[in-house]
Automatic annotation (TrEMBL):
Region (Disordered): 1-66
Ranges annotated as biased composition (Polar residues): 1-21, 31-46, 57-66
InterPro entries attached to this UniProt entry: LEA1/2/D7/KIN2 (IPR039624)
Source lineage: Eukaryota, Viridiplantae, Streptophyta, Embryophyta, Tracheophyta
Record protein name field: Late embryogenesis abundant protein 7
Protein's organism: Cardamine amara subsp. amara
Domain of life of the source: Eukaryota
Chain ranges passing through the membrane: none
Length: 66
């Protein structure tokens, strides 16, 4: 293998490794974003349920729920 071929081969390997690392990092970022989204949705649902419960409590206390 000539020197130019070796350099080209090494450059190709480095490019492939860089692309693979970038792909892994993008997957991790995507997973983190999905996890955050799910967590926020769950938190939002819990808040909604608590607000509904509080609303029902006020209605019951004031007699508006009859």
């Amino acid at each position: 293998m000539s020197s130019n071929q070796n350099i080209s081969f090494q450059a190709g390997q480095a490019k492939g490794q860089t692309q693979e690392k970038a792909s892994i990092m993008m997957d991790k970022a995507s997973n983190a974003a999905q996890s955050a989204k799910e967590s926020l949705q769950e938190t939002g649902q819990q808040i909604k349920e608590k607000a509904h419960g509080a609303s029902e409590s006020v209605k019951n206390a004031t007699g508006l729920n009859k």
